[in-house]
Amino acid sequence: MGLPLREIMRLYFVALQFLTIIPLxxxxxxxxxDMGRSMTFFPLVGLTLGVMLAGADWLxxxxxxREVGDLLLIVLLSVLTGALHLDGLADVCDGIAAxxxxxxFLEVMKDSxxxxxxxxxxxxxxxxxxxxxxxxxxEYKRHALFFFPMLARFSQVQVAVNAASARxxxxxxxxxxxxxxxxxxxxxxxxxxxxxxxxGVTGVYVAFILYLLTWGLKAWFHKRLGGITGDVIGCVSExxxxxxxxxxxxxxxxx
Length: 255
Known about the structure:
78% of the residues lie in helices and 0% in strands.
């Protein structure tokens, strides 16, 4: 990338501050250009979350039934991320359910209130994550905890790069404006390498399937809204978390 280590670490911490509520004992300089540039390190932040989840699972498994421990892992992930992407999932569900065209869809997503369909989407999404995580074979569970947050954060980079913005202002604008093919290539290379190290060829298959799914979602939102928003990025991330664990369960459940 040609960046000094200090700059690499700064951009990583910019990404960490945006994607999580993990407090840092120091301040990090950040301007508008850094939002898009920091996307290079989104998968690394996802892996950081995975390390925390795997560590928590090690603690929970010694004292709690798996059912309780798995539910606490989903709660912990929601807390660590400030439920940022869950909010996007709920807003997009409400937007899809709204009657009307593009402007109505965007208006509903911007509303801070959550509607009935948004609640249903949120509950179903959390239940799916919990159930799928619970049934992943125990020998693969901690590998999966490393994997799915990382892959979901890569999907955010994929959605943002070369995307049109559906609004004139907002987070989607900041990310889409500054994230480019360099960010996508570096983030993608890191994600594929980690996928292979964690699951071998199976990990690469999962990453490729979700890569295609994410392109399809990106194309649909461009057609429906004329571009992406921050809520769209969050929604796609949540769908990738669910999809990643579900595909892992299908591929590894009978091994």
